[in-house]
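Thread: Newbie trying to understand structure tokens

Hi all, I'm a second-year student working on a class project, and my supervisor (Dr. K.) asked me to get a predicted structure for one chain before our next meeting. I've only ever worked with sequences, so writing a 3D structure as a token string is new to me. If someone could post the tokens and maybe explain what I'm looking at, I'd be very grateful. Here's the chain:
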Amino acid sequence: MSKHPLPFQVEDISALAKSLKKAAGQAGLPPGHVEWLNILSRTAGYKNFQHFKASHAAEQRLATPAKETGAIDHSLIEQTLRHIGPHDTLLRWPSRNAQRTLWLWSLFSARASLAESEVNELLKSRNSFDDHAILRRALIDMQYVTRTANGSEYRRKEMQPPATARAFIHLMKARQQQTCSLS
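---
Reply by user tm_fold:
Sure, no problem. This is what the structure looks like when written as tokens:
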């Protein structure tokens, strides 16, 4: 079996040490090789070692910048990109909530305040399945935007997106710049 080096980074070495101590003291026997890999992967923010490995492989394929801190799920980004067509339009509404979340993060710019008609036009231009109402509802339900009581003004809720969403937004902006430069 060939070995491929996988870079490993954690934000909090103290949390890593606590997890390792807990795992080593839980059973009468020390954890095996695979269990150690899973423990380390969970400490870095992944579900298990296979998730860590798949995310690293997707990162290599996507060639996303490594400047983001935190666990970035590159395989989720890659899966979400399958739902996005030319001109960054959403081809179909993803069934997985995590994929919906990534795409919704990329819609509004910071401190944007839009009228309902502007939101509708934006959503119509960014999907190809002609259901902007479901997208607008999702924005409200997932609390990415707030709206006035009469629904006349929509404003993006200002909050820090997770590391995966930041990487996805960066990738989408890079794709848009490439499209503009090719035109």
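A couple of things are worth pointing out once you decode it. Residues 68-182 form a domain with the Arc Repressor Mutant, subunit A fold (CATH 1.10.10). The mean pLDDT is 82. Feel free to ask follow-ups in this thread.
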